């Protein structure tokens, strides 16, 4: 779980902007006690006008974990990042994240230019006491970075040397593990890297292109299938079943002719290309008073398909410990269905976190957010600098009886487009 995060000089974020998931009050469902006395919010919601930069904080969170786990093999490759703020693009980008992995807190900080990492540090809290994991400092182009490992890791001198030699100036020390052979004393590094790979997910990971595979997986997993069917029924979509039909798909005659006549292909290659391939077709069983009937996936509405995609995320959120970043979660969903989705997550998850952007204002009228304003941020782009600002819902000094919805509608919370008159000059 993420404890807190901030970014500086990243996309539309010029000055340091951050999100804290430390719960202001204990709640049995909205927060989780990740460590004795430490409660973290499971939910983070970002509101803002179009082009305000609300999605950019999601990209920054994704990026800091990418930097931790993805290595480079070519020193000429750029550091894994998105562009810095345009007006300060020659200055370093700085990212920070504090998170818990397998119950242990880690604090990671990194500063970098497009060509190389200037410095990074990783601290952790075994037995709740702060200790150095590693720190590195850039020494110059073509020169190995200065790297110091914490004594509590108990790494041998040979392991330290191997890690340092495999750490290029354009990727993190932790990710160098991916380029070396496993050794027994490297377990702390391997465990952390593997945790991040398994539990932190990219923005809207595994959407439309893998929907068919997800349905196929559900057909072979009774628990997963039962979850899908229950959630589809509760969504009032008139869907009470689904199935995957596998058929052999022949190569079209015109393509067969082109392959056969192409002298660049070997006979063996032609044979492989001309063989019929398995093709999966997905059908949903819809119900009516006159009987059930099947509709292929291609004829389902985009809203229905989006909801089914979201069920993949929801299942993993409530059955495991995951961090999901979702952009425009509310897209094409009825507001009641969105609220139902969130309540299922809140009441059935334990140590997962869901951070998402939305334009669905009706959520701001719900007790869920009005009683827990530390779950929501309002993102506004400053007119004088074109930089994004992120303000938490409990930072505006609103009276406890004031509605976030009403306050937002009248402009007290910012994060709204300033449109002016709807009369325009066509000349």
Automatic annotation (TrEMBL):
Residues 45-364 form the ATPase AAA-type core domain. The keyword Cell inner membrane does not apply. It comes from the Bacteria. Keywords: ATP-binding, Nucleotide-binding. The keyword Nucleotide-binding applies. One of its GO terms (molecular function) is ATP binding. This is ATP-binding protein. It comes from Prevotella nigrescens.
């Amino acid at each position: 779980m993420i404890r807190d995060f901030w970014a500086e000089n990243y996309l539309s974020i010029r000055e340091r902007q951050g999100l804290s998931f430390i719960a202001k009050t204990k709640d049995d469902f909205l927060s989780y006690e990740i460590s004795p006395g430490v409660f973290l919010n499971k939910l983070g919601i970002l509101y803002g006008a179009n082009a305000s930069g609300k999605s950019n904080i999601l990209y920054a969170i994704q990026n800091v974990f990418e930097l931790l786990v993805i290595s480079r093999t070519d020193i000429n490759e750029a550091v894994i990042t998105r562009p810095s703020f345009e007006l300060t693009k020659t200055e370093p980008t700085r990212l920070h994240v504090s998170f818990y992995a397998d119950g242990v807190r880690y604090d990671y900080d990194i500063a970098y230019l497009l060509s190389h990492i200037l410095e990074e540090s990783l601290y952790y809290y075994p037995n709740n006491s702060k200790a150095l994991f590693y720190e590195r400092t850039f020494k110059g182009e073509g020169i190995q970075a200065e790297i110091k490992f914490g004594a509590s890791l108990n790494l041998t001198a040979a392991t330290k040397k191997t890690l340092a030699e495999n750490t290029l100036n354009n990727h993190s020390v932790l990710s160098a593990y991916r380029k070396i052979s496993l050794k027994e004393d490297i377990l702390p590094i391997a465990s952390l890297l593997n945790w991040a790979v398994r539990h932190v997910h990219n923005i809207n990971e595994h959407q439309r292109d893998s929907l068919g595979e997800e349905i196929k997986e559900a057909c072979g997993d009774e628990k997963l299938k039962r979850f899908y069917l229950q959630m589809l029924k509760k969504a009032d979509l008139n869907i009470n079943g689904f199935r995957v039909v596998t058929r052999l798909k022949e190569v079209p005659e015109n393509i067969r002719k082109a392959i056969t006549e192409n002298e660049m292909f070997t006979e063996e290659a032609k044979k492989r290309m001309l063989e019929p391939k398995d093709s999966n077709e997905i059908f949903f069983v819809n119900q009516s008073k006159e009987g059930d009937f099947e509709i292929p996936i291609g004829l389902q509405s985009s809203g229905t398909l989006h909801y089914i995609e979201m069920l993949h995320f929801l299942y993993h959120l409530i059955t495991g410990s995951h961090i999901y970043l979702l952009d425009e979660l509310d897209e094409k969903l009825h507001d009641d269905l969105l609220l139902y989705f969130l309540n299922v997550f809140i009441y059935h998850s334990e140590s997962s976190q869901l951070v998402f952007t939305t334009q669905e204002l009706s959520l701001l009228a719900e007790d869920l957010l009005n009683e827990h304003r530390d779950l929501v941020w309002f993102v506004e782009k400053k007119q004088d600098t074109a930089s994004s600002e992120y303000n938490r819902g409990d930072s505006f000094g609103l009276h406890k009886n004031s509605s976030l919805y009403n306050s937002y509608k009248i402009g007290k919370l910012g994060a709204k487009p300033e449109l002016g008159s709807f009369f325009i000059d066509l000349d």
